[in-house]
Each structure stands twice: as structure tokens, then as C-alpha cells.
Amino acid sequence: MMKITSAEVIDLRVPTSDDMLGSDPFHKAPDYSSAVLHLETDGGLRGVAVVFTVGAGTDWICHGIRDLAQLVVGTSLKDFSAAPLKLYRRLIDHHQLRWLHDGVFRMACGAIINAMWDLWAKSESKPLWKLLVDLEPEFVVACIDWRHLQDALSPDEALAILKTAKAQKVTREQEMSVLGPKAYCTAGWLGLSDEAILETVLKLQETGFDAFKLKVGQDLESDVARLQFLRDALGPDQSLMVDANQYWGVDEAKEHIGHYLPFELKWVEEPIARDDVLGYCELSETFEGASFKFACGEQAASPVIFKQLLKSGGIGYCQIDAVRVAGVNDVMAIILMAAKFGVPVCPHGGGIALCNMIQHYGMWDQIAVSGHSDTQLVEYIDFLQDSVEHPVRTKSGHYVTPVAPGWGLEFKADFLADHTFPSGKIWRERPENRRGVHFECDLG
Q1: pLDDT (average), residues 349-373
Q2: pTM assigned to the model
Q3: Catalytic residue among 348, 360, 398, 419
């Protein structure tokens, strides 16, 4: 009967803007950040979750998490693990907070839920992916809120998908016991030089990577020149993707993407607004027969948006994010919907410790849902991995299968101390106009 005794929330920020790491058309100088939740217990275990942000606004998320955490302090882990949907609905359906709907509210709910799943996995000394893989199909189905999804996927259909995968689950788990999901790297940040991008690509190629992504969107001529540069460097046999981070309208996207056709791209990611389902359908129809399909999802705020993107055929790659929606329960629903519609799940990673989380979803999908690794890629970035006690590792272009209990989100004490905002050493010494809401860029 382990109980939650307290909750601590930490505003953690890293000045990645100094080196333009993470830069894209909209987020010109991001400071990679996370709202970090620690749920303490009377059993000596700590549940940990993060919500990734890019600087200003992290404090908004922190407040939401602190507020909601009052609802789990004093509750037992046993009650949660018996029926995770109960806590999910208590948070998501709060009769007053629900008015805020998605965005900050849903992400704050997700932090609480993810920390509880982390705690459950640690109580069983299992990495999160193993906890999920070991769940019975009926239990997984009972974790999902089906109210707005059944026109796309019914509980019976989900159960059938899980039972089909269960027949080969032992074999698939053995196959992925050392090397986990295949990875790709986002190397082409918009603010970096071609030479800096190529240096990262060459370094990762030496370790087995053969799939890379570029940021595009601000200037067509520069985008095409950079695509030509990298395609020439990669050769014809390696995968190349682009990401516009929602910078265009539909017609503008058609104009830009039409110039990308010679480069044999694997996907075009977020060319338009994250929830423009009709726009994605139009783009998919316009570029039917191209080498690429469209990818979306890292900023899709709920399973209902994913339902529309998947059911309509608007996207060809489903990019779940570990912290954008309301935790494990939501992600289960999305991965199952993607399986029904035959859309590969290619999780969005990077940030601070997002890669630690998405590797578990890649494992669960490829072992217990889709049951294969033929079409999926999981995002990876090569910086900020050493901020945690159990950093992700890669080998031969794959994630190395995680073994640490839970998510593996325990941050190093000195990293937390230096980067806590605004009291940490890194921020005390930083000019006010280069931090938080005071940090503005030329919007162009």
C-alpha cells in the first residue's frame, strides 16, 4: 500500500540557444527545458516525469503540475495500478479544469499520469517498456478512454490487434532484447552551418546511423541548396527527411514541397498547422505517388486529433510525443489506432530526456502492438543525453534496449542544481534579456 507523500516540481532550463541547437523556422533560439515532477512515497521510491518545453512557458506547466499533484498526494500506488483509467478520468474530466481543454492542461495531467506509471514500473523493478509489454491485452484496453475514438477503433478491434501481436510477443521481445528500435537523427538545425550539420552526420554514420532529418521553411532557395548538399553527402541509399515545424499554409506548402521532389525524401514533417486535418488530406492527394509521405503528431494535442489524421489518410507517419498528450493512457490509444490504419509509429524525440521516454513506446509498439520493426524509426538527438543517470545509448543505428527501472528519468544532481530556473548558476549569470519571457527574437 505504498502511498504518495509529496510532490516537487522543478523548472529546468538549458541555454541551447547559445549554439542554435534545436532551432527551426518558428523556434529561432530555443532554450531546451523541462518541467520535472518528483512524486515521493513512503516506500522509498520516487516517480519521475518531465514535460518538455523550449524555455519561456515552463513555469506555466510547472504551476499546472503543482496544482494537479494535490489530487494524488495521499493516494496509493495499488489503487492506480489496479485501474489507471480512474486517475486519468479524475484529472482529464475535472469538472472545472476541463474547461481549459488541451495544451498546458493536458500536458500537466500527463506529467502526473506518467510519474505514476514510472512509479509502478519501479515497484516491479521493470523498465517501462517491459511493464507495458507484460500487461494483458484486456488490461491495456481498459486503460483507454474510448468515448471519442470508437468511430475509428473499437475496444474489440484494439483487443484483436493486441491478441494477434501476443502470439509472437516472446519471440519479438527476444529479438529486441539487446538492440531496440531503429533510430534516426535530427542533425540539420536551421541555425547551423552546412559544415556543422555534416560533422554530426559523419560522426553518427560511423556508429551505424543511416537516416537523417533537416529543418526547412524560411527560405526556399536555401532549403533546396541544403537538401542538395546533404543528399550529395549521404548518397542515394540513406534516408533523408525534412521538417517545417508548421511554418506554411497549405498553398505555400505545395509550392515549397514541389521543389523537394528530386531529393527522394522519406517524409515531409509538419508542413502545415498541427491540427489541419483537411490540409494534410489535400497535401497527401496532391503529392500522391511521391517518394515521401507526410508526418505529423509531435504537437497534436489529443488522441482525437490523431484519430482524424489517421482515419482520413492525411498522414503516412504517426509521430507521437511522450509528453504532449495525457500520458501513457493516451499514447496507448494512439499507437493502437495507428496499428489499425497501418501507419508506422515514429515517435518524436530530442528535448531533455524525451528520448529516454520514447524508446519505451517504440519497444512496446514493435513488440506488443504492430509486432514488427520493418517501417518504424524513433527520433534521436546527440546532445543533452548525459543530463540523466541513465542516458540513452545507441549502437548500429538503433537504440540500445533500456534496462533501468521506470522511464530512466533520474537527473544528475549537479545538472539540476546548475540549470534550475531562475536560481541555478547558469541562469543567475545570464542577462535578463536572454532568459524567459524577456528573451525575444526578431520575428522577421
Answers
A1: 96
A2: 0.96
A3: 348
